[in-house]
Each structure stands twice: as structure tokens, then as C-alpha cells.
Amino acid sequence: MVLGLRKDNLVIFCLHFSICQLEPAKRFGEEPRKDKLFGGAQFDFRVPKTMTTIIDVAKKAGVSIKTVSRVMNNQANVRDETRRRVREAMDLLDYSPNEAAQRMRSGKSSAIAMMYADPSGGYQSRFNHAMMQACSDAGRYLAVGLFEEEKGHWKEQLERFLDRTKVERLVLLPPMCDSSILQDCLKQLGVRFVLVSPSRPAPSAPAVTMDDKSAAREMTQHLINLGHRRIAHITGRSDHIATLLRRQGYEEAINTFSASAKITPIVIDGQFDFRVALANVEKLLARKNRPTAIFAASDDMAAAAYMAAGKLGLNIPTDISIVGFDDVPIAQTIWPSLTTVAQPFEAMARECVRLLCGHADFSSNDNLTEFIIVPHTVVVRESCAKIRP
Q1: What CA–CA distance (Å, rounded) separates 297 from 316?
Q2: Structure pTM?
């Protein structure tokens, strides 16, 4: 039935169909029926394809429904051959599980969560991007929350975040990864978690890290091999374990070579903050006997050293060599490009996702004690050179 109402030169059509009055379309492969409405305009009415279900996938793959569910949830207790058959059946049937519906039924989220304090920071933005890619590859999503380190009340912040997101998997970045209070809270709530770069292994807490001390030692040794003997180190925040480990690596390299060559250690504070590092490097370079090389514990602080050197008219690397740590985007956007330690962000993110999603027993962290060290790389670019005679 078509009813036309005219009001203020606007024609309103109300169309009512009784489904039972429509002749069903012919079987698939035949021409659908075309009805003429509104003065001859043609409309196709097709019977929609029957929705594929998990039962269809199980029948096609020759496995149980429970096995299909395990494959969809990336559980580990499925043979590779079985997993392949299930995936092939899903592809052939064009089956994609409705995650939103699953989440609504369970009241839980299959996303992986992460909280950090400074989204604009080089390290955290790179790790965030790596986690997004790793989650996408695993068929999951990344839920991100802002964490305010300085305000305290860490446990309350975490509980509010978990209550809003309903996540059951969480990545703890520094410095939260070293908080036993947060770890205990997560265990009590049944939330599986992975620690990133903790200061030490924790009971029932899998961890993914790189060897910061070894990397810092290699970088300092690289500067020593170039002939530098006055090498300054810009440290990060005192409550971050990376600060301590990178300084230890710097000092170990200097102590190793000090017996055969006189090397002067110089340590200044940078707080992992561009402005703090800039102010302190300006004071350092104003000294009469300034260093010939600077090793910053982060690329952001290395960029601050670039600015300080530029203000004084110093050429990099002719007058002073500068190296960093992390290999975040700024390392290749400043000129000359920065020699730095490349953090294995992508590999670490993949390991985090594997640890969080690759175990069948999802109830707790009790059986998860892996401590994975991912290899790093020293990337030599244009910011350091041999010392001039």
C-alpha cells in the first residue's frame, strides 16, 4: 500500500509491505522477481543467504564446536593441522564470528589493554603502535588508558580502567610494571597481565624486556672506539629501572677501558624530559672542558642535546658526537640522523600478545613465569664521528 500525503510542497510516501504477500525469490542461481512500484521503478526482492554458524564451520572442518571455539579464541591446545582445517572452513564459508555479540553475552572484552602516562612520548607512542599491529594480527583490539603517575592512587586508577573496559588482558609498562600492589590487584581480579621491562622477575608474572645494560654498554663502547674520552651521559627518571640499567651499562664500559685509557665519566640529569635535558646540556656545554660526546638515555633527550649544541654553534658530529636510545621517529627526522639503540618494539609487542592469548588456561597467571629477553640493535647513523686529533 502506498499513501501520499502533501504538506508544504513536501510529498511524504508511506510504504507498507506484508512480507507474506510477496512472492519469494526463486532459488539461488535463478532470476529474482522484480516488482514495479512508484510509477514503474523496479525493485529486486531477494531471499538473503542463510547465515553461516559455528555449527556449519565444525561440520565443514570435521571437528567439534568446542574445537572451533578454541581456534577462534587463539587457544594453544589445538593441533596445527586442526587449526588449519578450521581456518580453511571459516574462509570457505565466509564465516566471521561476531565479536561484539560475544562480548555482550559474556560481559567481557577480548581486547588487550595498556595504560601509559605520556602518549606523546617517543617510547610510549612507538610501543603503542607496535601493540596495535600485534593485536590486529591476532584478531584483537587494543584498549588504551591514560595513567597519571604523579597523582598516585595507582590501584584506584587501574580499577576504574578495568571496570570501564571489562578487559581480561593487560600490558604493564614502566614504572607500573614494578608495582607489586598493581600485580596483586590484577591477580585478585583474575586479569591476565604481562610486564614490559620490569626491574626484576616477579612471581607468576610473565615479562618481556630487552637488555638495557648491555645495549648501553655497547653504545658507550662505540664512542670509546671512535676515540672519545670525555663522554657525558644524560640519565632518565630515577624511578624508572631503564635509567639505572642504562647508566650501569655506560659506567661498565668506561670502567672497562679506564685501565688502558683515561676516560672521564660525566653524568647529568635529564628526567626523560626534553626541557629538563635541554637546560642541563646547555650548562654542560658551557663548560671550558666540555665533553666530546654525549650519550642520552632516550632519543628525546638526544634531540634536546642537538638543540643545545646548535645554540652554541657546534657542528654535529664534527665538534661533538651525540647518540641516543630507543630509535623512535625523531631519530630519523632530526639532522644529522641519530645513532641510537633500536628498541625491538614490534618483537616485544608480539611476545606480549602471544603470552596473553596463547595459553588455554585463562583463569590466572599462576603457570606463566616466562621472562623473555628480545635482542636489540645498535643503529649507526650520522651523528657521531672519530675524535679529531
Answers
A1: 18
A2: 0.71
Residues 6 or more apart whose CB falls under 8 angstroms from that of 60 comprise 89, 92, 93
Q: Helix, strand, or coil here: 373?
A: strand
Q: What is the pLDDT of residues 25-41, one digit of tens each?
A: 443 344 444 444 444 44
What is the rounded distance in angstroms from the CA atom of residue 358 to the CA atom of residue 77? 9
The per-residue pLDDT for range 217-267, each reduced to its tens digit, is 999 999 999 999 999 999 999 988 999 999 999 999 999 987 777 887 899
Long-range CB pairs of 179-184 (<8 Å, 24+ gap) are 179/154, 181/154, 181/155, 182/154, 182/155, 182/158
Sign of CA dihedral 244, 247, 252, 258: negative
Q: Read off the C-alpha cell for 161.
A: 580502567
How many Cβ atoms from other residues are within 10 Å of residue 282's Cβ? 16
Cell of 343: 628498541
